[in-house]
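Narrative of activities, Objective 1.

The group set out to show that a structural description can be obtained from nothing but a protein's sequence at a throughput compatible with the screening campaign. Below is one input-output pair from the validation batch, recorded exactly as produced.
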Amino acid sequence: MVQAPPQPKLLSLYLPGEVALKVTSEQFAVLAAANRDLRLERTATGELIVNPPTGGESGKRNLSISTQLGMWFEANDTLGEAFDSSTGFDLPNGANRSPDASWVRRECWDALTPEQREGFVPLCPDFVVELRSKTDSLTVLQAKMLEYMDNGSQLGWLIDPKNKRVEIYRAGQAVEVLENPDTLSGEDILPGFMLILKRIWA
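Output recorded for this entry:
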């Protein structure tokens, strides 16, 4: 009877914030495929970012955002495609990002090949949402929002539930800050979309 070779023991590696691990885009794709339970991102300079699964509060807020965006999308699917937080995008600057929610114009999505749609989407979404969790650095998220704008996004919301504050990013414009708003408008990018923030602030 042939015995199967012993399986290697899995070890966990803790990477302190001050230690940067750099990977190529090809290595990142392999890592992401092997670690589907983690939200991995990669900066334009190749630094790997490991985002652990969200806690309950962030999870329910993310669900509310995705559900509301999804309902608008179902009624307006000719305008584009909507995505949840598990979707990765290859930005023009070389970064690999996964917004908490996003949307891409129909003409941009339809221009992609079937292979491009299956993998990390090789473009920057027209609309992005980042939801700040308890452990998220505000300055890091703000830099990410500016990166989205620099790479082609037209509208972005940085939602901070702890402070009931929203930063609105628009292409070529100064950031607008709203304190404790009840709703957010998709403006002319997502016409008719209105995000109700009641459950986000709860």
